[in-house]
Write a structure and sequence with these properties.
Elements (H helix, E strand, L loop, with lengths): L2 H17 L9 E3 L2 H4 L1 H12 L4 E5 L8 E5 L6 E5 L5 E5 L14 E3 L2 E3 L6 E3 L4 E3 L3 H4 L14 E4 L2 E4 L9 H4 L2 H10 L5 E10 L3 H6 L7 H4 L8 E11 L2 E8 L2 H4 L9 H4 E7 L3 E5 L3 E9 L7 E9 L1 H9 L12 H4 L5 H25 L6 E3 L4 H13 L11
Antiparallel strand pairs: 1-19, 2-11, 3-4, 3-6, 4-5, 7-8, 8-9, 10-11, 12-18, 13-14, 14-15, 15-16, 16-17, 17-18
Length: about 400
């Protein structure tokens, strides 16, 4: 993030702290329960947001070197993502051209050839069919016509996009706009190192998971024994970029940082930027790295979802951990980092998001399915929720939710 923008956000948070104020959306907004429970609406969302919209499938650190790959099966199209020998990110339908079988079944790894488990048709990491058994028996075919179906893909700002539609386009000027593109260019996310992945499966609509990242009004109640120790609740900055948005949370460290010269300020010391990248991605930025959350429906249902959570560290943090003899592969199952005085994001994130936020979000989904309330309400201090849901509605050609001024 550019220094000028960092200072603007930090000064805004300090102003709210000093005045007792907060970001103000100008009114409240009422959202009907069928936003989360309607099967017909869910079907539209699935086809529009997941089957025919550019998807963030990971980051540059997921394919750290040529010959690496990963697979995804989250939005209706089996994906094989590779980094070829020239270092290019490529994406293909993970479907054999012979009989339609899934070619690669491992989640990730390092290999340059992929063989179908049914008949052994083999492809290289650029998608070309390079061999098949007994061509004299099967028949001589033009192998150039039987490669894996390539999908539109793009790597920029350390993010990896795939379009599930072979005829789709990935235009970041359209998706992000110039302001967000410049901001992401400044972050240097392409240097991040993937260190850990987790899945949180919850009985709730996928948008309720997105909502949990959209306000800090709940911190003094739900997180009174966790996040409230390091964050000021109900103090935030909000900015939107086309359908995307950034909520900037206020860390308690800002109290000491504000006494220092502005040149010493950094956004990740006094704040915690949280990006919503339409339609289903939350990107949390900290001084140690980022936590990427990709939210998907499960079982083609509006009532069940999964959060795919990936943790990435900045290279300087990786070096520090190595010097402290902390084994990255074992961080998620022991207290080594705490013994070295380093906060373990794996343990903290799950304990808060999975065990606090998602528990009440699932209870909310159960309540919404009961049919006993006509709407839920987003307050003046929850502008991100206003934005999320009107962005969803705009993309579905629905009328926006009106702002009710008080």
């Amino acid at each position: 993030m550019q220094k000028k923008e960092q200072v603007r956000l930090l000064k805004g948070l300090i102003s709210y702290l000093d005045s007792g104020g907060n970001v103000d959306a100008g009114g409240i907004m009422q959202n009907p329960p069928d936003t989360y429970t309607c099967e017909k609406r869910f079907s539209k969302e699935w086809n529009k947001f997941f089957r025919d919209y550019p998807q963030i499938v990971g980051m540059t650190g997921d394919l750290a070197e040529p010959g690496t790959f990963f697979t995804r099966e989250d939005f209706g199209i089996p994906i094989l993502a590779t980094r070829d020998e020239q270092g290019n990110f490529r994406a293909f339908a993970n479907v054999c051209a012979h009989r339609g079988v899934i070619v690669e079944n491992e989640k990730k790894g390092q290999k340059t050839k992929f063989s179908c488990p049914f008949h052994g048709w083999t492809y290289d990491n650029s998608g070309k069919l390079i061999g098949y058994p007994k061509p004299d028996h099967f028949g001589e075919i033009d192998k150039t016509c039987y490669g894996l179906k390539e999908l539109p893909s793009k790597e920029q700002y350390g993010l990896l996009w795939v379009h599930p539609n072979p005829k789709g386009e990935i235009d970041l000027n359209v998706l992000f706009g110039s302001q967000l593109m410049e901001e992401f260019e400044a972050w240097g996310f392409q240097d991040l190192v993937l260190t850990h992945e987790e899945d949180y499966i919850t009985e709730m609509n996928w948008k309720l998971a997105i909502d949990t990242f959209g306000e800090t009004y709940h911190f003094p109640t739900l997180h009174k024994n966790s996040l409230l120790n390091s964050f000021h609740g109900n103090v935030q900055m909000f900015d939107s970029f086309k359908r995307n948005a950034r909520l900037t949370l206020c860390k308690r460290e800002i109290d000491s940082m504000k006494t220092e010269p502005v040149d010493n300020w950094h956004i990740c010391r006094g704040a915690f930027p949280v990006y919503f990248l339409f339609p289903n991605t939350i990107l949390n930025v900290s001084d140690t790295g980022i936590i990427l959350v990709r939210e998907y429906p499960l079982d083609l249902s509006p009532h069940r979802s999964v959060s795919r959570v990936s943790f990435y560290f900045w290279p300087r943090v990786i070096e520090y951990l190595k010097e402290a003899n902390i084994v990255l592969d074992e961080m998620h199952k022991n207290e080594t980092m705490q013994a070295q005085g380093v906060e373990n994001p794996y343990l903290g994130f799950g304990a808060i998001i999975r065990d606090e936020d998602y528990v009440v979000a699932a209870a909310s989904h159960k309540g919404l399915r009961s049919g006993t309330i006509d709407h839920i309400t987003f307050g003046k201090n929850e502008p991100a929720l206003h934005h999320y849901h009107n962005a969803f509605r705009e993309a579905l050609d629905m009328e926006p939710l009106p702002l009710i001024k008080l």
